[in-house]
Design brief:
599 residues; alpha+beta; Ribosomal Protein S5, domain 2; formyl-coa transferase, domain 3; 8-stranded mixed β-sheet; 20 helices; elongated
Amino acid sequence: MGRIAHLDTQTANMIAAGEVVERPMGVVKELVENAIDAGATRVQITIEEGGLKKITVSDNGCGMDSADAEMCFERHATSKIHGQNELWAIHTLGFRGEALPSIAAVSKVTLSTGDGHESTRVIIGYGRKEKVGPYPCNQGTEISVEGLFYQTPARLKHMRSGAYEASLIQDVISRFALSHPEIAFHFINDERDAFRTSGQGSLLEVLYAVYGKAAAENALPVDFSDYDYHVTGYLIKPMLSRASRNMMHIFLNGRMVRTYKLYQSIQNAYGDFLPKGRYPMCVLSIEMDPHLLDVNVHPSKWEVRISKENQLELLLKEEVYKALCANGQSPEKKKEEAKTAYYQPLAFDTDALTVKKEEAPEPETKEFVLDAAVKEQIAQEAKEDNAALTALQAKIEEKKTSYDAKENNPFPLLEVIGQYKDSYILALADKGLAVIDQKAAQARVEYEKLLKSLHQDPIMIDLTVPVTIHAGSDLIDRLDEINAACADMHLAFELFGRDTLTIRRIPAWLKEINKEQFLQDLLDGFAQEKDLSLPDAQKKRIAMLASRNSVHVHQKLTAEEMKSILLQLSQCPNPWTDPYGHPTVSIIEEQQLLKGLKS
């Protein structure tokens, strides 16, 4: 007897659910896509306990008759396409016919729908039809999902806190609002209004609701195209940036996607407009012939394939750069400055700028260097990927060997001779020419100062004008948790309006840095964290953020400023790397330096 047999429908649906419905956010995404495809102009999403207890999505779309209400729970049953040829010209967000049966396989689903002529209710509990019959309701559809994953404990145990799951749901609803400003969205989280748009068709109005007032006031409208692609939306001026790509939104034919090549094109267009490690904010909608977009790549529909993708990348890079320049923006390094000689000797006595060896104390231990430069990297990069941890631990050993080699080689005697490209300090060393990355060096110096400040009782400063930060409801719901986590830093956020947090007092170490940017980055980090406790490693990460915000790129330095940087760098426990492990100093030996000049 053969060993191969067909799986029963319930088992097949549960397998499909593993790809389509990874967490509550996936359920909301699928249900809202169905509402949009049904022509809805109003969509309301209500959740309880991060969607794990209950999710309800209701709309005023076309609704369904009784036959369709039952058929929609059958696998691969859909009204979106009717044949294979239509796969290459998809105009709807959904088309696979997998979402509802997959959701119903891992939860209890109640569907109430009406098409203006008849109305129906269907109840399915974990893959089994429980009740079907007439039910009075208005035109449109309401779907309630309860007890998600309760009968699949292996999946349930991987869910995070309700607040975190709710934050993911709000993020995906925000994306729907940005891609469809003509639809009114209303998000209710645990009986509290969390997000709402009017549906008046104003993208700038939605951008204000998602990004905040400052971003809306600094939004640059764009509208450009070529033969195949038409791009519209807003770029946020470089004066506002974020620590991650979370505020870069690209929509293809109204569909939210993850397309890192297009993100990189926009990031390259911003180029020198932004400091290293910062990311732009933008909302761009790209319209194209559906034949150029293959959305049948993965059941979750986050991934797509784009025909002529290189053409689109080039279009974005060129036109975004033009838009930034046309609106009065200018890169840190202006074109006319680039025409001058990169290397200009300075007229001063180099002997007076010598950094004495005896001024640099011997490092007490190299363990601190590992914590800051490598273990912190592990904490960030291996947080969601245990497999990466093994590789990173090997990297620790590699870097430890490098640091041990320098332990008996203290910071060298340096004589400053000039600056290169307003970014690198040039100095004579015993064995050749030292090239010091001034940004990396300053970052190391500021990092050590701030790290020391975090472990002391700081002097507190009352702000004449409080700092205000736009925050989503997910962060506002966790305000007490955030303030408890920030207590060691002597920071306390207060609620200021429905979607704004404010800080009225700051420790002295925050006075000289970009407070708004630092606090925004801090909140962005908390939004992605499950546990907001602050062990030493996280304090060091916060110090890294602060040091990054205190450093300028392409900054012309005086002789005294360069002397001060090298002196302070020499006194750091580890002067050889910045807080991220990047080298601060490179010494080109004289033999290598003169190699090309010898016959």
